[in-house]
Design goal:
Layout lengths: L15 H10 L5 E2 L11 H12 L12 H15 L5 E5 L1 H13 L5 E6 L3 H9 L3 E6 L8 H7 L4 E7 L11 H14 L2 E5 L21 E6 L1 H4 L7 E5 L4 H12 L7 H10 L5 H18 L13 E5 L5 H10 L2 E2 L1 E2 L9 E5 L4 H13 L6
Parallel strand pairs: 1-10, 3-4, 3-5, 5-6, 6-7
Antiparallel strand pairs: 2-8, 7-8, 9-12, 11-12
Length: 373
């Protein structure tokens, strides 16, 4: 048979997260602790704003970089958070869209991209798709930012360092000291840092610093989907310092020929979203964090997350894949850690669920482990 598929397709695999998401649709009644999307609905105000935008005729393309009013608000927000005087901002189709644009703008075949392990799944596969080489730096067992390990693997081929804080899947929030140390290392070779901060609103034990405040060669990626319960709207944004103007212009040009623009009515609604207080949601998720950790810590080894809505749990006595298979047989959906790592020792629990669901899932997971009650 004549070859049909491009070689690049063979460099990636279907998302393990989406496989479990699809499995959930076939298991009514299953305890779903797998998918990372908030269990709360979008605030009524921004739903009304989206409807008003649709009815008001905001149904055509926006500018490639986004609706001017929203971009202006995001510029001010970025300025206040990074100290950059003239940040350049574009609206993307989710943070995942921003990741794809940044990697397409920067990574050539053979270029090396440094990624802390564990990592969010898209990093590995997007780099491989472009012919780049992932250089993984182990952060087990405490999942702190492995600054010394990163320094040791930098070569002349290093094009990019990816940082994700709060981290998916571990929930770890990096400190100012860790980020400053990484900024110092990156600055010595003028290496671009891609800072994925999609979960920075979900920081439970204090502020979540971003490396952009310490390093101008940073692409900051943030989004609205997690914070406002609108993951299906696909709204994110990318911000850079003017020193990276060529990167920004390349990302915007690539967006012209790929995503075109983010959904216009949802961009209009996002303007109102920026004025909402999401503090009550964060407080609720802090309590969920405390709940899931208190329930699982008796039987499992875990690092208490400071952010996001995940716990990365060590699988007792088996691989993560084997433990997840047993959990699914008992009706609990979690994600094997090998999806996020070059190791297969852990599994990810999402506590973006109702408290009763978390409690039911914890009872079943604990029941899979022998030990004192």
């Amino acid at each position: 048979m004549r070859k049909i598929l491009a070689d690049r397709v063979g460099r990636i695999d279907a998302s393990g997260i989406r496989k479990v998401f699809a499995l959930a649709q076939t298991m009514p009644g299953a305890v779903n602790l797998s998918i990372g999307q908030p269990d709360f609905d979008a605030p009524e105000l921004i739903k009304q704003q989206a409807v008003a935008a649709i009815q008001g005729g905001f149904n055509r393309y926006s500018q490639t970089t986004g609706e001017p009013e929203l971009v202006a608000r995001l510029v001010e927000l970025t300025r206040s958070q990074t100290g950059w005087q003239e940040p350049m901002v574009m609206v993307t189709c989710g943070v995942s869209g921003g990741i794809v644009l940044a990697l397409m703008a920067l990574v050539d075949p053979g270029d090396e991209v440094i990624i802390q392990d564990p990592y969010f799944v898209i990093y590995k596969h997007a780099v491989n798709l472009l012919g780049g080489r992932c250089v993984f730096v182990d952060s087990y067992p405490d999942f702190r930012l492995p600054v010394d390990g990163i320094a040791k693997v930098i070569t002349d081929k290093t094009k990019l360092i990816i940082v994700n804080s709060p981290c998916n899947p571990t929930g770890v929030v990096y400190t100012q000291e860790e980020l400053k140390a990484l900024a110092h290392i990156a600055a010595q070779r003028q290496i671009v840092v891609l800072s994925d901060q999609i979960y920075d609103s979900f920081s439970y034990d204090g502020p979540c610093p971003g490396i952009g405040a310490f390093y101008e060669w940073t692409i900051v990626l943030k989004g609205l989907g997690k914070s406002y319960g609108v993951t299906g709207w696909r709204l994110g944004y990318a911000a850079v310092h003017p020193v990276l103007r060529p990167v920004f212009e390349a990302m915007a040009m690539i967006q012209q020929y790929t995503f075109v623009c983010a959904p216009t009515p949802f961009q209009r609604a996002a303007i109102a979203a920026l004025d909402l207080d999401i503090g009550p949601y964060i407080q609720a998720y802090r309590r969920k964090r405390d709940l899931v950790c208190s329930l699982l810590a008796r039987r499992f080894e875990l690092v208490r997350p400071s952010g996001a809505f995940y716990v990365f749990v060590k699988a007792p006595g088996s691989t993560g894949t084997e433990f997840v298979r047993r959990a699914i047989e008992k009706g609990v959906l979690v994600i094997p850690g090998g999806v996020f790592s070059e190791r297969d020792t852990h599994f990810r629990v999402s506590f973006a669920a109702e408290d009763a669901t978390i409690e039911r899932g914890a009872v079943i997971l604990n029941g899979l482990v022998e030990g004192p009650d």
